[in-house]
Amino acid sequence: DKGGHKHFMSKEIAEQPSVLTNALGYYIKNGKIELPDPGLDFTKIERLTMVACGTAYYACLVAKYWFEQVARLPVEIDVASEFRYREPPITKGTAALFVSQSGETADTLAALRYCEGKADKIISVVNVPESSIARESDLPLPILAGTEIGVASTKAFTCQLTVLAILAIKAAQDRGHMDAKQVAEALEQVKSVPGIMNHALALGERTKAVSRNLAEARDILFLGRGPMYALAHEGALKLKEISYIHAEAYASGELKHGPIALVDEHVPVIVMAPRDALFDKTISNMQEVMARGGKVLLITDEQGAKEAGPGVWDTILMPEVDPFVAPIVYAIPAQLLAYHTAVSKGTDVDQPRNLAKSVTVE
Ligand code: F6R
């Protein structure tokens, strides 16, 4: 049942504030973080290894910034297909964390099995509680997104991020990098996400208009710094999956090390830049693109748009959001742009060619 939507993907995009609220209610009780048994004590963990595929991997990439920043916990991330054959040494004090919507992805499951008996703890962040990955982990953490039907993952991504954000706060608390007051404040930020997301979802018409222009492009670049680098990847993946437009993500600072050679008036460059500590850096990279005739679509908030100055091709004005949770909210324009561009091109949004919802063979 598409609930009045034209596609499951659009229904699942719209559902995000409500499924996120479920996840928040499950993990935050009376202002405190509650994990299911057997719990998790980050004081005993010295290192976190996170492994996943595709969109779930980009959730890991965001989480790496969170864990390192707020919990000062060293994090290694890898895509499952590389991790499993790399056979990395797993040293004492390592927790291994696997993120998977389906819980059945062959490479992710193989990576988990590789860590069995080597890692101190095997944690999974999954949507399907009875899946192989959930069953084979010491601590399966459900994301409570409900069934995701669209092949392109949307609500699972933001629910994965929400659970990982809460876990990063828990790690910060256990490791003494946040006191009770700071934990309460951080949890309030996470709890504010569904409400702010509703404002971002109201940008549907705006992104639809922009997407009509994007649909003409053959190549599109996405740029971001910090956690927005991960969102740039997610935006590019979503766009290529369902609209078949070639899209690439780069860390803004990497631009001048090669990809800037691609920039001309035919390549839209989507810059994801909330007004945060890295904003000025990203904007200076954006100006380098504009100086070479590149068409910039800037996704930022009001203050960011003001400071970025004139000359951008188009702007998507996002609601103001705390930098810690901004990656969860900025998933919305990434999803909406891909969705409307695909609709505009007339591709099969829910069943893109060559793709399967669950990749159970390597
Ligand atoms: C992208 C997408 C895929 C999956 C990947 C992992 O929209 O859906 O990249 O994220 O195949 O799948 P799970 O999360 O089921 O392990």
TrEMBL record:
The active site is at K357. GO terms for cellular component: cytosol. The keyword Nucleotide-binding does not apply. Its EC number is 2.6.1.16. GO terms for biological process: amino sugar biosynthetic process; carbohydrate metabolic process; fructose 6-phosphate metabolic process; protein N-linked glycosylation; UDP-N-acetylglucosamine metabolic process. It is an enzyme of class 2 (transferase). Keywords: Aminotransferase, Cytoplasm, Glutamine amidotransferase, Repeat, Transferase. Its main location: cytoplasm. One of its GO terms (molecular function) is carbohydrate derivative binding. It is found in: Cytoplasm. It comes from the Bacteria. It catalyses: D-fructose 6-phosphate + L-glutamine = D-glucosamine 6-phosphate + L-glutamate. Homodimer. Catalyzes the first step in hexosamine metabolism, converting fructose-6P into glucosamine-6P using glutamine as a nitrogen source. This is Glutamine--fructose-6-phosphate aminotransferase [isomerizing]. It comes from Octadecabacter temperatus. The lineage of its organism: Bacteria, Pseudomonadati, Pseudomonadota, Alphaproteobacteria, Rhodobacterales. The chain holds residues 244 to 605 of 605 of the full protein.
